[in-house]
Amino acid sequence: MAKWCHTLIALASVVPCFGGNPHEPLGQYQPVSNVIELAQIALDVKGITDAAHHHDFTGAKHIYEEGSNSCINATSRRSLKSFVSSATASQHLQGGAYFDSFTNGAGPSGADAILGPGRLPLQPDFWDEFISSALDGTGRFSNKSETSRMVAVKKGILGVITMYVSHLLETSIALATENRTGDGDGAPHVWDAAWALYYGACGEGCLEHCVTQGWCRFSAWEALKKRDGDHARNRTYQRVEGTILASSTVENYFLEGQRATRAATLDVPALIRVRNNIYRMFSVNAIRATLRYSYAMNRGNGLKYNSLNELLHMQAYTYFLAAAGWIEQSAPGSGQHVLQLLDFQQVTGEVPLSLHCDVKATLHRAYEPLGLDAAKIGQDWAIPDTFQCNSLPACPTAPDLPLGLPGYAAHDTETPAGSKLDCTSSSIMPSTSSIMPSTSTTTTSSMDVQAYMCALEAIEIMGAGAGAVNGVYHKVPNRQNAEVGRTALTECELCATWQNGQWQVYVTNSHLWRISGTDPLSYYYDGVGHMMGPPRSGDWDYKTEMNGTKPDPVVLPARMFVPITGQEEACRGATSTDNSNSYYELVAASSLEECQDRCLSQPRHCKGFEFSRGRCEIWTRPEGILSSYKLTGFACLRNDLAPVFSPVDGGKDRACRGATSSDNSASYYKVFKDLTLRDCQSECMDEALCKGIEHSTEYGHSGRCEIWTLSHGIGSSAPVAGYTCMSYKARPLTPPLV
């Protein structure tokens, strides 16, 4: 089937494209190489943004430093920190035109030299210092609020990306200069990488997380689109004549550069001009954001709410910092002066109302050397038309900007399609419906019997039927004539683990002596749930001798590890922002299973665990894990009570009913066919409204399952042979272990 490609033949015509380009477009830009992983950095930006928004600076720092979604290869991730670390700055960034305009560098010496004489005096790792200090609350952020730190992180990482995009652009130009122009490994590939990093991927569920309708990427490009909405469109979203639509313009410049890197006859000066045009768009975005937020500070709601005022202040500073060096090179002193005016170490409420006009006057001096003017920047529609700044410097009308290459489609590459890499060591998110017994073969002491996962599956594997599942253990003599007391599952527990190819069962007495068996679990229970006792009771006799009394089987309710919501998430205390480091012990673990085992090694203290690629938090908060925060790459599992199925009127040979034995409306339940009792219970556990089940195995109804959702539950039953009726009680929260 033909693909349709935009061409430059006629006006906006399209023709069928029979060439081959297997790479998915990123906006209007279709890469000619595999840059899938670079685009995935946008998902890290989202993860950091989400974490910082909830003041989870530990989670945000982990993603910033370790990476989460963007793979270098099958075993390594790239991180945002690696783009601007001290080592990267000294080994890769220094010498670049954009970077050196920030760090008082000389820049390139040829045709790709920095255009103007201005330079900022920032240290080479200024971005990493800024982000890391905001995450840690140290340095310049030691006296700043969590709101200020949050904004610095969220907007600062967009500046980090912008800086590294500039490095990729300049690397691509260097490769083109050396005639290294292969689509897969030369100038086109690196140019593609720059766009992928700048534009970003739209991950699964992306459209559900749009910041505003149509803005669904957490990327530096999307920031341009937002400011277009403020300055290039009016309050009814109509285009404002004469303004720059920066998000489209920068895309057209990238398209122009892509074609230039692949031209039969290379035009390196043209590539450099494209680079400078892209940097001009970086500057447009910084200028617009700074004007917008410097006006909002200490006015309206900003004046009314201090936290909002601090948010506006940090946005003005951080957005400007992303292009401050390039603005400074164009008009020496302009970038430096605006940074001083916006200095975030000032008390926000004490910044004078003249700030906006002071900033605007300084920036006006940079417009002409940047090839801009006030009309191209536009007026933020949120600023009243009646508001005017007096005595602004003259701002001559600048020539129209180059158009770039709108509509260009690269459709003739031979590079193969790529696919998303999996650079995780193991799956970190278990099934939300599974109950997971430990697979550890570590020998346990008598004090850590609770360390074994106690699961409904274990009971079912025994073939114990309804009697075991609903927790009724009859008084029967075991082979040593020792009585086992009758009790409900809410008071006793079967602890099991898979060891040496079989299920092991453990019960304890009141002194926590362990009584262990060595045979398969099925040996301990018959078909109606009778507890048969250990077939070989040497351990039993030994403990009896030590205690001087016959053991009394007293154990705890069945337990299981369960996710909080079933999504990728980090553990929290009472709320999604409750994350004191006193709640957990931080240990190393190479996999989720190892982290789980570390939790199991502390049965009386561990309330659950959080795992993310080598980082394991053993939660010991007395009240347990009551909330979570959605965070990509993290798993939070709570050590919880297992759900309980209890027999209604004995359960066996009983059909479920409503208020009375004759109350049996079909609206009370959902019917499933060909399910075992265990499958029927699983369906109930997956149904949020489930109050119980009815399962039948006779009279032509073998495998019939009713999931009862009646709001007030199963209130009665009727005698029907071959039926089983059980009520269901979920166990959503974990009480403290005693």
UniProtKB/TrEMBL annotation:
Family annotation (InterPro entries): HCR1, Pan_app
Protein name per its UniProtKB record: Apple domain-containing protein
Keyword terms: Signal
Signal peptide residue numbers: 1-19
Originating species: Polarella glacialis
Transmembrane stretches, start-end: none
Residue stretches making up the Apple domain: 571-636
Pfam family for this entry, one: Fea1
Coiled-coil stretches noted in the UniProt entry, renumbered to this chain: none
